[in-house]
Amino acid sequence: MDAHLSPNDLAALISRCTGVTVTGEQVTDSDRTFDDLGVDSLGLMGVLAELQRNHGMSRDVDMQPDQSPLELLNLVSGRA
C-alpha cells in the first residue's frame, strides 16, 4: 500500500471521486464519518476502487459510510 498518502491526498481523492468537497482536516477528525461528509456507499465504492487501482490497497477492504475517513487513511497507510 502507499504509505505516503497524506490526509490532504486522501481528501483530494475523495473529493475527485465523489464530487463532495473534503479537507485534510475533515479526514483526520475521527468522529466524522463518510455519512457526515455526504459521501454515500456508491461514492465510497468509487474511492475504494481508486485506492485499489492506484495505491495498492487490497480488494478485501470493506468500508461503510458510517466509518471515518481516518479509518480508511490508517488502513491505506498500514496503521490499522
SSE map:
Layout: H1 7-18, H2 24-27, H3 34-37, H4 41-55, H5 69-76
Please provide a written account of the structure.
The protein is an all-alpha fold. It has a single domain, classed as Non-ribosomal Peptide Synthetase Peptidyl Carrier Protein, Chain A (Orthogonal Bundle), CATH 1.10.1200. The protein has 5 helices and no strands. The chain is globular, with a radius of gyration of 11 Å. It starts with 6 loop residues before the first helix and ends with a helix. The model has no long low-confidence stretch (mean pLDDT 91).
Descriptive key words:
80 residues; mainly alpha; globular
Brief sketch in words of this structure:
Helices cover 54% and strands 0% of the residues. It has one domain: Non-ribosomal Peptide Synthetase Peptidyl Carrier Protein, Chain A, CATH 1.10.1200.
Look at the structure and give the CATH class: Mainly Alpha
Mean residue pLDDT: 91
State the order of secondary-structure elements, H for helix, E for strand: HHHHH
Relative helix content: 40-55%
Strand proportion, as a percent range, falls in under 5%
Q: Main sheet, how many strands, which sense, barrel?
A: none
User: Structural class of the secondary structure composition?
Assistant: mainly alpha
Number of strands: 0
DSSP helix count? Answer: 5
Radius of gyration from CA coordinates: 11 Å
The best one-word shape is globular
CATH arch. level architecture: Orthogonal Bundle
What is the end-to-end distance? 12 Å
Domains counted in the coordinates: how many? 1
Low-confidence stretches: none
CATH T-level fold name: Non-ribosomal Peptide Synthetase Peptidyl Carrier Protein, Chain A
